[in-house]
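Milestone 3.1: sequence recovery, worked example.
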C-alpha cells in the first residue's frame, strides 16, 4: 500500500512538473504612462520660441495623457502606446488624412510594434516606432527639461519599418533596418515604399552609454546623430547630442547640445541644456541663421510626480524673435512651471 501511494505521489508530482513546463513563459500585461500640465510666460507676451510643445503663453495648459501597454509571451513581445492632448496629438504628428489637425485629431499612436527574439543576441522588430535618433523624446517623463531642443523639433519623431538588433557583446550592440520613405508616417508612398535605411552602433555600461545613429533615404534625407550619457559621479551626469541633417537643395541643419545635471538631494536636481543649432543654405528665410539656446531647469520629485521650474534664453544671429513691443529682435526668453506625473 505504501509503495502504491509512493507511485501515485510520484506520478502526480511528475504530472504537475510537466504541466508547469508546458505553461507559456508569459508576463503580465504592463500598463504605464504619464500626464502633464504646464504654465508658461513668454516675456514678449506672445508665443515666441519655435521649438516643440509648451507653446501657449500665460495659460495653464495641457501637455498630454500617455498610455502604454506591453505584453510578452515566450519570445514574442508587443508594445502599443497612445496619447491624447496637444503634446501627443497634432503637436507631435498629424493624422495625415488631409484635415485640419487641430480640429480632427483626437489621439495619436506613439508606438505600435512587435518584437521576435530569435535568440539571446538577435531580435527582429516591425511596426511604428519612436525614432532611435536623438537625445530627447516626446514624453516629458523621458526628458530632464520640459521644453525641447531645436534638434528634437527638426529631427524625426517616429519611424515605421523593420529592424534587427544584435548584441555583439555585453556592452556593444548593432541595429540595421529599412523604414518608410518619410519620417513620422505610418504609410509610405506606394511608389517608394521602404525607401530609407538606418543603423545604430551602441555602447552601454553602468556608467556610460553612447549611440551612433544613421538614416538615409531619397525622401527623408540623410541624418547622422550621436547621443551619449556619462554618469561622472554619483551626483553629476553629463549628456551629449550632436546631429547633422541634409536633403536635396542644401536643406538641412547642424547642431550640438550638452546636458549637465547635478543631484543636490535625492529629490531635487538642477540641469542645464546648452544648444547650438544652425540651418543650412536651403532653408529659405532661415538660411545660414544660427541660434544658441540655454535652458536651466529644476527637477523636484515627489513619488511619481516631477515638478519642473524652467528658465530659457534663446539668441539668434538674425532678428527672428519678437520683444514685448512686438518689434523684431535677436533674443527671446521664457519661464515655465510644469507638473509631470508618471505611472
Amino acid at each position: 500500500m505504501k509503495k502504491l501511494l509512493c507511485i501515485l505521489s510520484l506520478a502526480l508530482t511528475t504530472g504537475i512538473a510537466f504541466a508547469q513546463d508546458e505553461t507559456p513563459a508569459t508576463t503580465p500585461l504592463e500598463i504605464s504612462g504619464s500626464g502633464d500640465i504646464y504654465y508658461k510666460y513668454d516675456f514678449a507676451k506672445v508665443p515666441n520660441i519655435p521649438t516643440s510643445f509648451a507653446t501657449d503663453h500665460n495659460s495653464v495648459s495641457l501637455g498630454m495623457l500617455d498610455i502604454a501597454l506591453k505584453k510578452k509571451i515566450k519570445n514574442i513581445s508587443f508594445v502599443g502606446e497612445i496619447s491624447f492632448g496637444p503634446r501627443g496629438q497634432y503637436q507631435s504628428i498629424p493624422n495625415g488624412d488631409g484635415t485640419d489637425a487641430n480640429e480632427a485629431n483626437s489621439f495619436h499612436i506613439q508606438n505600435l510594434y512587435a518584437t521576435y527574439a530569435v535568440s539571446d543576441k538577435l531580435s527582429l522588430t516591425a511596426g511604428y516606432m519612436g525614432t532611435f535618433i536623438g537625445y530627447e523624446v516626446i514624453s516629458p517623463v523621458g526628458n530632464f527639461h520640459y521644453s525641447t531642443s531645436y534638434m528634437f523639433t527638426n529631427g524625426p519623431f517616429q519611424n515605421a519599418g523593420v529592424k534587427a538588433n544584435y548584441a555583439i557583446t555585453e556592452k556593444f550592440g548593432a541595429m540595421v533596418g529599412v523604414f518608410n520613405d518619410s519620417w513620422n508616417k505610418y504609410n509610405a508612398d506606394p511608389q517608394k515604399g521602404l525607401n530609407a535605411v538606418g543603423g545604430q552602433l551602441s555602447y552601454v555600461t553602468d556608467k556610460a552609454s553612447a549611440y551612433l545613429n544613421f538614416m538615409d533615404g531619397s525622401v527623408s534625407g540623410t541624418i547622422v546623430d550621436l547621443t551619449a550619457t556619462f554618469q561622472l559621479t554619483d551626483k553629476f551626469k553629463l549628456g551629449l547630442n550632436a546631429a547633422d541633417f541634409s536633403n536635396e537643395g542644401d536643406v538641412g541643419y547642424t547642431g550640438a547640445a550638452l546636458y549637465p545635471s547635478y543631484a543636490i538631494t535625492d529629490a531635487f536636481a538642477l540641469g542645464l541644456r546648452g544648444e547650438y543649432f544652425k540651418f543650412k543654405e536651403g532653408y529659405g528665410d532661415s538660411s545660414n541663421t544660427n541660434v544658441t539656446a540655454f535652458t536651466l531647469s529644476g527637477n523636484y520629485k515627489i513619488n511619481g510626480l516631477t515638478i519642473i521650474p524652467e528658465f530659457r534664453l534663446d539668441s539668434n544671429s538674425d532678428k527672428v524673435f519678437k520683444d514685448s513691443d512686438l518689434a523684431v529682435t535677436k533674443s527671446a526668453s521664457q519661464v515655465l512651471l510644469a507638473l509631470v506625473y508618471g505611472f
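The radius of gyration is 24 Å. The chain has one domain: 25-342.
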